[in-house]
Write a structure and sequence with these properties.
CATH class: Alpha Beta
Strand content: 25-35%
Helix content: 25-40%
Structural class: alpha+beta
Oligomer: single chain
Number of domains: 1
CATH architecture: 2-Layer Sandwich
Number of helices: 3
Distance between the termini: 13 Å
Largest sheet: 3 strands, antiparallel
Strand order of the largest sheet: 1-2-3
Shape: globular
Number of strands: 5
Order of helices and strands: HHEEEEEH
CATH superfamily: Hypothetical protein
Length: 84
C-alpha cells in the first residue's frame, strides 16, 4: 500500500488489520530507522526524536496501540512523511 494512503487510513482511525511490513515502511518514510531487534521487538529511532518506537508483529499485523503511539509521537515532534 502507498505510504500516503496508509497514513490517511490510520488517521481516520482504521488501526486494525495493518500489515506489519507496510507499517514499518510508513514509519521509515517518517525518517525512523531500525536500531535493533530483540526477540519480537523491533526498536526504531529518529534523529529529531529522543523517544524510541517499539514495534511487534502478531500474525503479520502491527499492534493498534503501537500505531497510536507512533501517530502521537509524529504529531508531538512535528514529523513529516518524506516524499518517495
Amino acid at each position: 500500500m502507498n505510504r500516503k494512503l496508509l497514513l490517511r487510513r490510520l488517521l481516520q482511525g482504521q488501526l486494525h488489520n495493518v500489515n506489519f511490513g507496510e507499517f514499518r515502511n510508513l514509519i521509515e518514510g517518517f525518517g525512523f530507522y531500525l536500531l535493533r531487534v530483540e526477540g519480537s521487538h523491533h526498536i526504531f529511532g529518529h534523529s529529531a526524536c529522543p523517544e524510541l518506537i517499539n514495534l511487534q508483529k502478531i500474525g503479520g499485523q502491527a499492534k493498534p496501540y503501537q500505531i497510536r503511539q507512533f501517530l502521537r509521537l509524529a504529531e508531538k515532534y512535528n514529523l513529516k512523511l518524506e516524499d518517495k
